[in-house]
Amino acid sequence: MQPVFAQSTVSPQRPGDPGYEALLQAATEPVRAQFGDAIQVEVERLDRLGQWAFLQGTMHGADGGRPDYAGTPWAERAAAGGMSDVYVALLQATGPASDDAAAAASGRVLDDAEDAGAADAPSAQAVDGEPVEWTLVDHSIGPSDVSWLTWPQAHAAPRQLFGF
């Protein structure tokens, strides 16, 4: 069963917004871990809904052109044409956003099971009410299909976040 979210409006996150850099760093960590500085993610959208965030972007090579996957685990797939330049990531706030007060402030309604487990959630410092700790829930590097189509159900994330 999908959790109920009181807040139904997705909030686009932009450079300069409180917490933007921490969210972007957490979202793009898998790309940096796999490719270092050789591939960058150009953010097309970075949206937040309560304690959830979704990034959709395009990967570019360091020169701004198409990514070069040579010497990576994706080289064979890219050579066969089965690799897009898309990168997507789903994140969930941890710490302050997982307790009742922060959930209420973000418009999220906890169900009984979540409410009971909120005390066990890890804590994190907050700056201006924004959580500084984001957990990467799922990501997809170069998918050849809409790999995030199942994420709302698989991770109990709000469908509105994904635009469908």
Would you write up a description of this structure?
The protein has helices spanning 20-35, 75-79, 100-105, 112-117, 151-155, and strands at 11-12, 39-49, 52-61, 86-93, 126-127, 130-131, 134-141. The protein is an alpha+beta fold. The strands form two sheets. The protein has a five-stranded antiparallel β-sheet with strand order 1-2-3-4-7, with helices on one face. Mean pLDDT is 80; it is low at 97-125.
Could you give the topology of this structure?
Layout (H helix, E strand, L loop, with lengths): L10 E2 L7 H16 L3 E11 L2 E10 L13 H5 L6 E8 L6 H6 L6 H6 L8 E2 L2 E2 L2 E8 L9 H5 L9
Q: Topology as H/E string?
A: EHEEHEHHEEEH
- What radius of gyration results from the CA coordinates? 17 Å
Indicate the proportion of strand residues. 25-35%
End-to-end distance, in Å?
18 Å
- What helical percentage do the residues reach? 10-25%
Query: Mean of the pLDDT scores?
Result: 80
Question: Number of DSSP strands?
Answer: 7
Strand order of the largest sheet: 1-2-3-4-7
What structural class is derived from the secondary structure elements?
alpha+beta
Low-confidence stretches: 97-125
Determine the number of helices (DSSP H or I, runs of at least 4 residues): 5
- The best one-word shape is globular
Could you describe the largest sheet, including whether it forms a barrel? Answer: 5 strands, antiparallel
